[in-house]
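call fold target=UDP-N-acetylglucosamine 2-epimerase (non-hydrolyzing)
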Amino acid sequence: MSKIKIMSIFGTRPEAIKMAPVVKELEKHEGIESIVCVTAQHREMLDQVLDLFQIKPDYDLNIMKAGQTLSEITSRVLLGLEEVIKEVRPHMVLVHGDTTTTFAGALAAFYQQVKVGHVEAGLRSGNIYSPYPEEANRMLTGRLTHLHFAPTQGNKKNLLAEGIKEENIVLTGNTVIDALLQVIKEDYRFENELLNQLDYKNKKIILMTAHRRENLGEPMMNIFSAIREVADQNEEIEIVFPIHLNPQVRNLAAEILGNTKNIHIIEPLDYEPFANLQGRSYMLLTDSGGIQEEAPALGKPVLVLRTETERPEAVEAGTVKIAGVEKNRIVALMEELIHDKVAYDQMANAVNPYGDGKAAQRTVAAILEYFKDENC
């Protein structure tokens, strides 16, 4: 029997972080030939993660161009992957989550009649335009998928409600926990000296991220105004904001948050320092999806700067609260977590719903089981 050819496709930093444990697990099995193809939808941020986890791609489409549209990304990934899939002829293509690379990768595999495995399947916000374009990407990918690797029971229920057969769904936990636990170090030292000098013992360090397309404009203005008000009223906090490269975010942050002594706007962080900063923070504010999964694993409350989330398990578990994009609500929730120890401890000590760090093992075991009766 020849080896099972599994080709992992990803293109952004979040995908790479969550696929790295799966790729490393695939490499451990003699019966599997692991092939990695990156689209480099994000170039520099992707390369940082590849270096950290020591993954060398077999194929690199290098599609990144400044200012490219979603249509351009989709078409370039689709055309590039057509040639790679024809050459490799994998038994299964693995895609992750909800990026444009994810959907285009699944579609390219479908066009070549290659089976698709979807890691982190079943997330749904219920609003096709939020997050945009991710909600549509993951729904469309789901229609092309043979094996759905669902992180939680809630994700599995979403898939069942859409008519996916239960035998095609595998409950795994989230691979982001696998990755996170590999990089957190108690004695970690940051390259950015400001982060080494912060008083983590006596100050409440709040880590924030904000960059989503749907928050640009008035929502982002409300978010930043709330942050500024809370910072001005609470000397015991220090807010660290690794700022996105988007000029709209940067200009608005400079206008509203600049020159505030306890707000530190810094350049974006690589995954390893960001993960370790999460581990030392008091709480997190974010409009990102992945952080809603990572921070609870470290016992850190999260306020989500969005009006809905595709990760309701965290809300139900009590590790996450939806702060929305209205100034008064954001201020109220921040003040509560800063001053109310009972409210803080309830969130910090809630059980993380995203697993135990063994999601990659379950994913690969399911792939082996799926192909066990086939003569590869």
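return ok
Residues 193-349 form a domain with the Rossmann fold fold (CATH 3.40.50.2000). The two ends are 6 Å apart (CA to CA).
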